[in-house]
Specification:
Blueprint: H1 2-11, E1 20-22, H2 26-29, H3 38-47, E2 52-55, H4 57-62, H5 64-67, E3 72-76, E4 78-79, E5 92-93, H6 97-102, E6 107-109, H7 119-136
Amino acid sequence: MTGKLIRMNRILREDGKTVIVAMDHGQFQGPIEGIKDVRRTLSNIVAGRPDAMILNPGVIEKNGDLLGGKVSILCRITGASTNYSTKFDYHRITTSVEHALSIGADGVVVMGFMGGDGENASLEIIGKVAEECSKLG
C-alpha cells in the first residue's frame, strides 16, 4: 500500500484536486498541429506545473530528462486503430503496468467503452489492469 499511497499523493494534492494534462493524442491522431514538436510542447506544459500528464510509453522514454522530478506521469497502456484506419477498433493492452512503472510512471490509463459493442472486452481489460495495479502497488 505504501507505493500506491506515495504515487497517489504525487498526483492528487492534499485538497483532493489535481490538474492532469492529456498528451496521448498522437497515438490515435498522429501529429497534431500545435503539438508536433513534442519536446517543446512538453517543456511548455511542465513549466506550467501541472500535477500530472498522460503520455504514451515512447514519449516518456524519449523525454525523461524533461519530466523526471517535475511532473507525475500517467502512462497510457491501451491503444487501438488510429484516425487513419478505415475501421474503428476497440482498445487493447499495448504494454504492461510493470513496463509503465519501469519507465517512471506513477499510474496508468486505460480506455473503457461502456454501453456499446466493446463493453465486455473493455470491462475485462479494466479488471485485468486493476488487478495488476493492485499487485504492484
